[in-house]
Design a protein that fits this description.
Blueprint lengths: L22 H13 L3 E5 L3 H6 L11 E3 L5 H14 L6 E7 L1 H5 L2 H10 L4 E6 L34 H6 L5 E6 L3 H12 L5 E6 L3 H5 L5 H10 L6 E4 L3 E4 L9 H5 L9 H22 L2
Parallel strand pairs: 1-2, 1-3, 3-4, 4-6, 5-6
Antiparallel strand pairs: 5-7, 7-8
């Protein structure tokens, strides 16, 4: 993905209640500025809903509808159809949800919207757990990570939502990171030009949930990308895979060391996680080379 110069258009306001140093607030600033003024937003219970706040004190310049956790994509679909009925086909419908409302509770609505190829832009802020309710695990939580409901480490792997969505053959899927903000902005700009369902998953290191220092989210995000834990990719029409960062330059050790949720791991556990990452990375390389 070619970088674009980032320019703040004032679409995200100061005075919000995000944690100091929150990666989600930073991502929202970039996303809202890239989406622009001709947009309507849908948000469901999550950290992002609290950061946005409600009318008339929302931190976003565009209007947002707050809904229930399981219905993000369904609500966004309805908003889009209403706009089309008014002759406003070009207005972007932006849907913001966390991994709990995407990988888990909202998956049925997301899958249905993908099957219908609804013309919405769905953003998942992936902090790998239910961080707004005590830091419990979600199906996005990686194997071995300690959470409020898996204090000794999660025993199952992270759900591969990218390939689930790719099986729906929607026009555009991408991953993004706060360590690569021009890439995030460029992917939002690209998604705006595409008709049909677009999904972008943004990795969000959670300060309390991951046990990350409040000045370290960009560093942790970058280590996630450089180690291959969270590859930056695009998938077009469910078939064409593109790796935006095509080389791993770090082992996972430095990434794990930045987080309290992995402090319980033995050397054997860490080696197992490295093997998981290598296996997933090699699979992506093969898919991108097809």
């Amino acid at each position: 993905m070619k970088d674009t110069s980032y320019k703040d258009e004032g679409q995200f306001c100061s005075g919000h209640v995000a944690c100091a140093g929150c990666a989600e607030a930073l991502s929202m600033r970039v996303i809202l500025n890239a989406v622009g003024e001709d947009a309507v937003g849908v948000v469901v219970p999550s950290c992002v809903a609290i950061i946005l706040g409600g009318h008339p004190t929302s931190s976003a310049r565009i209007p947002f509808i707050h809904g229930v956790l399981e219905s993000a994509a369904a609500m966004a679909s309805g908003v889009k159809q209403a706009l089309v009925a008014q002759g406003k086909e070009d207005t972007t419908v932006l849907c913001l949800a966390g991994d709990g409302g995407t990988y888990d509770i909202g998956l049925q609505a997301l899958s249905s919207a993908a099957e219908r190829n609804e013309d919405i832009l769905y953003i998942c802020f992936d902090n790998e757990g239910y961080m707004n309710t005590g830091g419990q695990k979600s199906s996005s939580t990686p194997r071995a990570a300690a959470t409020g409901s898996t204090p000794h480490g999660k025993t199952t792997r992270k759900k591969n939502l990218i390939e689930i969505l790719a099986a729906h053959r929607i026009p555009y899927i991408a991953t993004a990171s706060t360590s690569h903000l021009p890439d995030l902005a460029a992917k939002v700009e690209k998604a705006k030009t595409i008709r049909g369902m677009k999904v972008i998953i943004v990795v969000i290191p959670c300060l309390p949930g991951w046990g990350v220092a409040d000045n370290a989210v960009a560093k942790v995000s970058r280590l996630a990308v450089e180690s291959g834990v969270f590859p930056l990719i695009e998938v077009e029409d469910g078939l064409k895979y593109t790796m935006n960062v095509d080389e791993k330059t770090q082992p996972i050790g430095p990434y794990l060391d930045q987080q309290k949720r992995y402090r319980h791991l033995s050397n054997e556990d860490r080696e197992g996680l490295q093997l998981d990452v290598d296996e997933s990375w090699n699979r992506l390389v093969e898919m991108a080379d097809r």
